Amino acid sequence: MNSYTPVIGLEIHVELKTRSKMFCQCSADYFGKKPNTNTCPVCLALPGALPVPNRKALEWCIKIGKALNCKINLKTKFDRKHYFYPDLPKGFQISQYDEPVAIAGSLEISGQQSPLRQGSEGQAEVRKYGITRVHMEEDTGKLIHSGEESLVDFNRSGVPLVEIVTEPDFSNSDEVKEFLQELHTIIRYLEVSDADMEKGSMRMEPNISLRAVSGQQSPLRQGSEGQAEVRKLPNYKVEVKNINSFNFVKRAIDFEIKRQTELLEKGETPAQETRGYDEKTMKTVGQRSKEEAHDYRYFPEPDIPPMTFTQSYIDSIQLPELPEKKIQRYIADFQVDPRTAFTLSRSIEASGVFEKIVVAPEMLEVPNLTAGTANLIVNKKIDYKNPLEANKKLIKTMLTPVKTDVHTLKTTIDSILKQNPDAVSNFKAGKTSVLMFLVGQVMKEMKGQANASLVKEELLKSMK
Length: 464
Prior knowledge:
Distance between the termini: 50 Å
Largest sheet: 9 strands, mixed
Strand order of the largest sheet: 2-6-7-10-1-11-12-13-14
Number of domains: 2
Number of strands: 16
Structural class: alpha+beta
Number of helices: 14
Radius of gyration: 26 Å
Order of helices and strands: EHEEEEEEEEEHEHEHEEEEHHHHHHHHHH
Shape: globular
């Protein structure tokens, strides 16, 4: 029996929250509107209507590209992507092909960011996923199926849509889910999209295939002749379209891996096709054969001239502090443990409340107040509507001396150190940031009934 390694790449579509659509002045806020009332001759593709690109949408596409460490092309253009489907009024989609806005990027996810690897030495691990391209296009209309009828609502047609395409760097559904959650957080931080998956403003499409791996071709044996053969892409791929949930993406991938394995074991090659995910049966279902690039008959959009950006314009597009940097700053500046820093960084609202509180002058006078604040916010014990008043109550609590049962503390420390041997090894190897993680674990186990300074002192003694 052969063993198989999954080869997974992603296409992610993100609707931008601009005021108007991509090529016309219709409102881009289409959700909940009466069908076909938010349209004009441009987004309905009536004869003679000409598209005019949305400057803000292009700027936000560049911003996404920069956040994903891409090279921003100084010259870009739009192309016509031809396919015939009822929700596409023109018979083609204005998209980008060979000169997209951004190319050759990457997104790194470290152990501090990853809930899959927290609490182990894996905190130092970094996984890097390649970004092939980030390009700008227009969204399609929406099909509404009712009984034996299918109706078309063109309100969404023409809404600015950014497509993010990754390299096939994923080998399991957990990695994919982790990556998508981090990307979702970054998009929210950039404030270019609500990324509301229930409304369809962020949609995920995994491309999945399997390649056979024999013992002689082990990917662990880097540098061997078999390495090139192992990394060769399979001669097919299956795309699962329009998934709007991290959990559904994971389940769809797991189902596809099982389905494709069974076919390969029978000597069959899975069909190259587009499939959908059925949330009720938790299975993928075939939809149509999958097209290649030449099937779309791309050619330059004749109604929109190529665009050239100056480097000074690209440089003027600034990024906010992104989640990874925020986590690092919370750990270094405020002694927040990595797990809490990660959780805090997931919410713009929660991290914003934390930022308001920690700038108060009183914070400098109370030991461990910032770390305590982070824990209380994560556990939703601070009133978001009035954080400064909550801060006063917190200071009063923190100033109240905590009696520490030294015997219980030492027993707890011994237990925590046994549970986290890799963290201890990392600390002894010079990774001092691990100490605050261990302090947080001990404080959590002691349910706050310990002085954090004493916890830190006893941990240092125990790890000598």
